[in-house]
Specification:
It contains 12 helices and 8 strands. The C terminus is likely disordered. Helices cover 49% and strands 14% of the residues. Strands 1-2-3-4-5-6-7-8 form an 8-stranded parallel β-barrel, surrounded by 6 helices. With 303 residues, it is of the alpha/beta class.
């Protein structure tokens, strides 16, 4: 209750105060900030997916500006020898304003990414976006199977069926690439599992389904129970490192990520940047009030 109360008032506090904890989880406001962070992570054997912050735009002009930033980001890295991918939220490309315009804008980004041997990940958002985002992914996958992937949320009751449908698209020539995460949006129990044990069981069930069907999976979790469960599945079937990677958020449980890297498992870190960091930070707190305790600890322990 106290955590929810604190999370609700944080958006009204001074930005400088919020930045005190946000800077641990966000690379910065501009492209050069995220370039530096990317090379720092690359130097210790961690690959990166970059997300430019900004969701639920209200005009197509804002969506086009979002696209322009992604194009500049891809151009900044070019074909340099650093392993990066790009993550984007279709809502920031106008998904809820005009689906066809959103598709055209995202397609431009994928074309630029493909020209530089990069992959674009379609992030999954709340329930009103799911069908639209799977449709968007399928359209792009037909044309760019090696340069586009999608995130799937294990806590949605529909996910088992979604994965079976996506399986039909997976061939050697047109491989499916999935980022499997728990899901963070506050959805009603009618469409999403709510209990910790249920969500974890679904996550591991989905992971085993994907791996045993030879689908590349980004195992996106900071939950030690899920990581151990994933390692058990990997060891049980003897899966090689070219079929999976662990994925974590920048600044969250870095020691756990380092431990996995030291054991030889591939690791990718999701690095957000942009001037919209304030809304991103406060939204994540509203959706996951348990983070408040971590923030308070960071403020007083780290200074």
């Amino acid at each position: 209750m106290i955590q929810k109360l604190i999370a609700s008032i944080l958006p009204f506090l001074p930005k400088k105060f919020i930045w005190m904890f946000s800077k641990r989880y966000i690379a910065g406001e501009n492209i050069e900030d995220v370039v530096k962070t990317t090379y720092d992570l690359d130097a210790i054997g961690i690959t990166v997916t970059i997300d430019f912050l900004g969701e639920f735009v209200t005009t197509l002009e804002q969506a086009r500006a979002q696209k322009d930033t992604y194009m500049a980001l891809i151009d900044r890295f070019g074909r340099q020898e650093v392993n990066i991918s790009i993550s984007l939220k279709p809502s920031s490309f106008g998904l809820l304003i005009n689906e066809e315009t959103c598709y055209s804008l995202v397609r431009e980004v994928v074309i630029r990414a493909a020209a530089n041997s990069r992959r674009v990940r379609i992030d999954m958002e709340d329930s009103k976006c799911v069908d639209r985002e799977i449709k968007l992914y399928k359209r792009l996958h037909e044309e760019f199977p090696h340069n586009v992937g999608i995130a799937i949320q294990a806590y949605l009751r529909r996910t088992d069926a979604d994965l079976k449908n996506l399986l039909k698209w997976n061939t050697e020539e047109t491989p499916i690439n999935i980022r499997l995460c728990k899901g963070i949006y506050n959805e009603p129990e009618t469409i999403a599992y709510k209990k910790y044990e249920q969500i974890n069981a679904q996550f591991l069930k989905n992971l085993e389904f994907l791996l045993t069907n030879n689908i590349f999976v980004g195992i996106a979790t900071h939950d030690k129970h899920l990581i151990n469960g994933a390692l058990n599945i990997i060891h049980k079937y003897g899966f090689k490192e070219d079929l999976y990677e662990f994925q974590m958020l920048y600044g969250v449980t870095p020691e756990l990520g380092k431990e996995l890297v030291e054991k030889g498992h591939p690791m990718r870190v999701y690095v957000p940047f942009g001037k919209d960091w304030f809304r991103y930070s406060t939204r994540r707190l509203k959706e996951n009030p348990k983070m408040v305790g971590q923030i308070i600890k960071a403020l007083f322990v780290r200074g």
